[in-house]
Amino acid sequence: MNYTAAVITMSDKGSQGLRKDTSGPAVEEILKENGWDVVYTNMIPDDFETIKAELIKCADQLDVCLVMTTGGTGFSKRDVTPEATHAVADREVRGIPEAMRAESMKITPMGMLSRAEAGLRGGTLIVNLPGSEKAARECLTAVIKPIRHGIDVLRGQSHDCAEMRKKEEHHHG
Asked: Are 38 and 68 in contact (CB under 8 A)?
């Protein structure tokens, strides 16, 4: 199976050319290191309708397995990435943001302030990451391995979780 991904950065300043995006390229690098084919990247403003349209495009038209977003998960009035994700998702995936927040909390208590969400739209998993490069790296690294298995199940490649655990134990044993 070809593990395709899109990386979307939400940044008003970045989309106007006023700030260099470092988190998007960092996410792209981690995905590629983990065997993902990043087929689409974009930087867009923190605008609810724009974000929704971009997520729908990635899921419905590009049919990527995974959409990673960076930015727009904080408390600012313009931080609407989680709401846009929720609006386009068919189903929530609560464990991914829970795991990312747990990992962040080991580093800083501010990790609890992330409003990141994850959800499924058809055969696509959408995951929100923080906008800071450091936090995006930490959060993605915490969840990247189990995400592949989730995509296998979502796309009908694997249904046997017990068999997956045996393989993991064999590789780490």
From this structure: no
In tens, the pLDDT along 157-173 reads 865 444 444 555 555 55
The SS3 assignment for 120 reads strand
Q: 82: buried, middle or exposed (CB in 10 Å: 19+, 13-18, 0-12)?
A: buried
Amino acid, res. 26: A
The position carrying tokens 């068919």 is 90
Q: Write down the residue that tokens 């609006």 correspond to.
A: 87
Q: Which of 101, 125, 97, 87 is nearest to 6 (CA)?
A: 125
Angle between helices 81-88 and 48-56 (to 10 degrees): 40
Alpha-carbon gap, residue 151 to 133, rounded angstroms: 24
Q: How many residues comprise the chain?
A: 173
Name the residue type at position 98.
E
Residue with tokens 């068999």: 163
170 to each of 17, 150, 163, how far by Cα in Å?
A: 48, 20, 11
**pLDDT, tens only, 5-61:** 999 999 888 888 888 899 999 999 999 999 999 999 999 999 999 999 999 999 999
Euclidean distance between CA atoms 117 and 126, whole angstroms: 8
CA distance 66 to 3: 8
